[in-house]
Amino acid sequence: MPALALDIGSYTIKAIAGKPGKSVVVDKVVETFNTNGIIIPTDDPQTEKLVETIGNLISDHKLPTTDVRLSLPESIISTKIINMPRLSDAELSSAIGWQAEQYIPIPPEELTLEYKVLYRPEKADNNEQMRVLLIGTRKTLVDKFIMVFNYLGIEPTLLETQILSVVRSLHFETIDPTTLIVHMGANTTTLAVVHQGELAFVFNHMSGSQTLTKTLQSAVGLDADQAEQYKRQYGLDPSQFQGKVQTALLPAVKVLTDAMQKAIRFFINQNPTANVQRVLLSGGGVQLPGFVPHLANILGTEVMLATPFAASTGNIPEANHAAMGVCMGLLTREM
Ligand SMILES: Nc1ncnc2c1ncn2[C@@H]1O[C@H](COP(=O)(O)OP(=O)(O)OP(=O)(O)O)[C@@H](O)[C@H]1O
Ligand SMILES: [Mg+2]
User: Fold this and answer.
1) Which of 6, 10, 11, 233 to mutate to test the pocket of ligand 1 (most atoms within 8 A of CB)?
2) Which ligand places an atom closest to the C-alpha of 71?
């Protein structure tokens, strides 16, 4: 049965229809501007606009609506990886609420908690700890988000945080080198480290590629459309436009590379015997010209663009692959 994965970004709404599974068979890939600019509506007019935009996207492209999979924006989520003594599933489920209270800064009456055991030692008799990923979300915000789909007659079959989808889209194996994933959208950048095939750390940075456009607008004196065009065309290329675009962008890019360096340092502090061996870039914003060599130079590691369609077949689009990681990860989940 075909599934539909939706990634409601603040810049574009991305939808992929296809046959889900380990190797996705892609049927349709569509994208439309999110003219509302927001992901979670806060009032009725915003809800109506979002319902209309998504409804039109589905009917214009005849997208399937029986198995609809959604990602939650990282901005309404608090993620934390904790160490605790080895517990069984039953023990964990009774202990987890109390753990969450300590680590997740969302009041209990507002909290929807999900958790996932990342690592459980084989035996309880040594001092090895288990690692659990806690994902806390604000109930009211999730309800407002789901409401949009309920208006369209859709009961989502899967709702998960974006970074889990992105990680799944990359098909990690235990033997893979320790990787920093940089998922850069328009207004958020999520940094995550995957170590021995397992998510070790997640950090959200509340800005993204739109900051670069705004910087260009004010530094070079361009309107929003021109700035967007210059960013995409010239980016960090020093030979273009007398290097003016690059010069203007560099301070804003530095804020992002500083966050990446901080994430790498944090990971190494927690795992002194490990090191980040490569950086994988995901999200629309990472397609900035010259971004890959610039990062390789600053971070001193191998840097690559993620290839979310690598394990799939079917109607794979020509461009903008980097922006499709969330949708592809949602479809890769076997249910
Ligand atoms: N070729 C390109 N070069 C530079 N930037 C690009 C390019 N293509 C897209 N972008 C930028 O990527 C961003 C869109 O990426 P994406 O679709 O991942 O964002 P989003 O999911 O809508 O945002 P968010 O997740 O932050 O709400 C825009 O800021 C856009 O300007
Ligand atoms: Mg996004």
Assistant:
1) 11
2) 2
How do residues 28-48 score in pLDDT, each as one tens digit?
A: 999 999 998 889 998 999 999
Neighbouring C-alpha atoms within 13 Å toward the C-beta of 174 = 2
Q: Atom 8 in ligand 1: which residue has the minimum CA distance?
A: 284
**DSSP letter for each residue of 91-141:** HHHHHHHHHHHHH--S-GGGEEEEEEEEE--S-SSSSPPEEEEEEEEEHHH
Sheet of 130-138: strands edge to edge?
77-84, 130-138, 111-119
Structural domains of the chain sorted by starting position, each given as residue range(s) with its CATH number in brackets: 77-138 (3.30.1490.300), 171-305 (3.30.420.40)
**pLDDT (tens digit per residue) in 178-227:** 999 999 999 999 999 999 999 998 988 889 999 999 999 999 999 999 99
